[in-house]
Amino acid sequence: MRIDLNGQTIETQARTLADLLTEQGFESPCVATAVDGDFIARPLRPGTLLNDGVKVEVLSPMQGG
Amino acid sequence: MFYGVDLKSRLMLGTAQYRSPQVLLEAIEASGAEVITVSLRREGAAGGAFRDLLAKSRCRLLPNTAGCHTVREAVTTARMAREVFGTSWIKLEVIGHADTLQPDPFALVEAARVLCAEGFDVFPYTTEDLIVGEKLLEAGCKVLMPWGAPIGSGQGLRNLAGLRSMRAHFRDVPLVVDAGIGAPSQAAQTMELGFDAVLLNTAVAKAVDPVGMARAFGRAIQAGREGYQAGLMPERDMASASTPVFGLAELA
């Protein structure tokens, strides 16, 4: 399945958001996630199924003003 | 002072654009700031170092929604920030124009209403417009953050009269001047007007010596606050001799 992860098109075997984070090597407590522009809270990640073409954002704490 | 939190320092410091995490950490320390602003981005090369730094600084975090142009983007970013930073504080920015980075007041009020209803403690980045301020308070905000000048411009207080009116109008609302402050004198002036705090980033990060500048801002803000509390003398149009005329010698 092809999805959009942080602006890059990738091929993934993951069926859920939680699986995707593991597959892509994200440290899950350090990131926040959104799917198609909606926030997905940590407890909901295992139950969030990914569809072809879905847009996933995985964001981390960064410098800001 | 701010959502039930009393701070000793009235400087809130941004964490972007520093040469290195070490310089940032030293600047925070030198400034005395107890609140630092942070953001959420796709993880870059410096991600791990920044997380270590956040752990080291004992500051309270104020995540922002910088770069958001719509209510939806800002609300989603705020929800993500609350989870990852573990705080209900959010510096709400909804940008209306790419060149001026002026807030979009309509979207700002709408986003503030959504977030306040969800239990966020919203710090809205706004203009000095009094009616927008009223609407933000109605939406549930308990702090207002008017701009001094466009973000990163270093122009200082561009609408002094407007900011004075805002201070007078919102007598009991904590007001923070956020953005546009370029020099310690401008920060001191802000505090002398009776504002409750100053939020700045670029003026420190882009100084030749960021640590020295951070210290200078911390002291200027303290001095400005003390000046305000001590009560400034009224301005006069004409001179008024300070040395007594009584007892003056006749030497002519």
From TrEMBL, chain A:
Which SUPFAM superfamilies has this protein been placed in? MoaD/ThiS
Tell me, what's a Pfam family for it?
Answer: ThiS
Under the heading CDD domains, the entry gives: Ubl_ThiS (cd00565)
Spell out the InterPro entries in the cross-references.
Beta-grasp_dom_sf (IPR012675), Mopterin_synth/thiamin_S_b (IPR016155), Thi_S (IPR010035), ThiS/MoaD-like (IPR003749)
Superkingdom, natural source: Bacteria
Q: What is this protein called?
A: Thiamine biosynthesis protein ThiS
Q: Which organism is it from?
A: Gluconobacter oxydans NBRC 3293
